[in-house]
Amino acid sequence: MPATIVLKNGKDHSLRRRHPWVFSGAIARVQGEPTEGEAVRVETQAGELLGVGHYSGGGSIAVRMLDFGASAELPTPDFWVKKLANAYALRQRLGLVEPKHQAPGTKHQTNVFRLVHAEGDGLPGLIIDVYGDVAVVQAHSVGMYRARPEIASALQVIFGDKLRAIYDKSSETVPGNAVGDAKNGYLFGESTGAEHIVSENGHQFAVDWETGQKTGFFIDQRDNRALLARYAPGRRVLNTFCYTGGFSVYALEAGAELVHSVDSSKKAIALTERNAELSNHAERHAAYPEDVLSFLKSHSAEYDLLVLDPPAFAKHMGARHAALMGYKRLNASGIAHLAPGGLLFTFSCSQVVSPELFEGAVLAAAIEAGRPARILHRLTQPADHPVSLFHPEGAYLKGLVLAVE
Predict the structure, then answer these.
(1) Range of the domain at 57
(2) What is the mean pLDDT of residues 268-276?
(3) pTM of the entire structure?
(4) 349 belongs to the catalytic site
């Protein structure tokens, strides 16, 4: 008999609105002894079934919901196939999955995309990114970590022979105290040892999902990279926190006069240089393995287009104020390096920093720099990173394009 989470009176409203989190303070009692990550039922005091989800006893989010309503059932192998097939069908409609009736020899423009975006696809705690014929799974909850065999089996059902391997990269993201010594590795297939090249909007990138950051590539900037390419021709471009050089490659291939890439990670810089080579325009590219703020302080060059795409400055509410001050300092320093009429692409991926707060920090930076600026675009994450209407917290990426006088 599965364990049951019984809510306090009046604490069922968010679940009836299909918000996928049950907070520990909403729980009246626990019937049974659920283990960390176990699938449990969630009920009202009157015994009405509100849904099922993964239990977490150690955090403020006690249950992450997988299904809602009186007909909700505990996950079975068929549950995972249906959920992942639904996510796959959406990516097909978005044009990210290779068409079934593509002409022989035709090269698909994009074969790297996010298949599952956690709550946005009804699977809280689960990320799956696809790199050509390899799927990379990342569990952010114990429940999803323990469901990896079922998830891997469902992926093989959906992709069939189009899938060569499934790599689990959860050791950095799953709560370690609940699963012991989590190690990354292949759930299906194995490494070929060869360089893996993917295509995004026709641009080629070398991806390292085994030792790279996140799942290997910042897929969420695809649309924003394409926008930058519209403005890059003939401009001097600085791409900071460049990681594998996504913005740099788009700028080079669009005809930028020169592109400079900066990242504190030497490994990231090596990947950026490799990707610049793949673009066949490496002669207009220079890479610097330096701390970004130190680079901005020590270099006096002006650029026509500057990208600020830092890692998350705040991962919880307690760090939000310090993050906003960090965004202000970074943007003020970046604006100082823009030539008159230059463009600033600036981003925040801190979930706890709202678009309004981020815009306020950039405003403060422009005031400090003493430079008039106009907003040309407000940017966000692409469609394969969907946000559930019932879970607005899933909107994490925000960005601005400014014209700076």
Answers:
(1) 4-68
(2) 96
(3) 0.94
(4) yes
